[in-house]
Amino acid sequence: MSTKKPLFIAFSSQKGGVGKSTFTTLVASVMHYRLGYNIAVFDADFPQHSLVKMKARDLAMVMENEALKKQAYKQFTAINKKAYPITPCKADNVLEAAHTFVNDSPIAVDMVFFDLPGTVNTPGILKALAGMHHIFTPITADRVVMESTLIFTQLLQDVIMKKGETSIKTINLFWNQVDGRESTPLYQVYNQLIKKLGLSLMQSQIKNGTRFRKESEADSKTVFRSTVMPADERLMKACRLDLFINEFLKIIQL
User: Fold this and answer.
1) Domain CobQ/CobB/MinD/ParA nucleotide binding, which positions (predicted)?
2) Do 157 and 186 form a contact (C-beta atoms < 8 A)?
3) Could you say which architecture CATH assigns to the domain 7-252?
């Protein structure tokens, strides 16, 4: 029986398509397979449960691809542990389910990642978010994304956190899908607004790339977004995910 209390972490956004499920997978896989932490994931994005379905596809892909099968065998032999579990759940009871899982786990769980629904109208979503220790929110230089994100982040910070009935320690915005061709002043304007609102913005910026929008292909020799293997280190550097991971670790202070 485990007595250690893990960190509860969510990549959360009130706008779809900004990368919360992708980052849940990317960071969980690097933590579990490459950095040695014991990870669990709860997929509360009902009813699609996209991460549960992704894991099934990832396992099938590895078995059908000889190069990836050899990499996976070498990986799991070296780390001597299984793939991290992904448990389907609903937002209104996900905290209880996670605590039960942690208490019943024969090994100490270091971090639990939560993939939560992207709408404030979902039953239980505010309770679930209030139960997180750290929330990371991807943002893009889009007016609609920024407006909805900043309003909701202010709600979390100024209402939920200040009431004291929460586990939240930090809420961290970070730029995703940054295109080097876009106007730099645009980001400067948004950065100033975020600072003026008293919100926390990570220094790391994730560069845009097609790899974020696709999983491993049948003849691929490397993986990026996968639930059973960590992202290839060269691909991580190309989009600056390696710098993000370093800053992420400093923030959560595990």
Assistant:
1) 9-214
2) no
3) 3-Layer(aba) Sandwich (3.40)
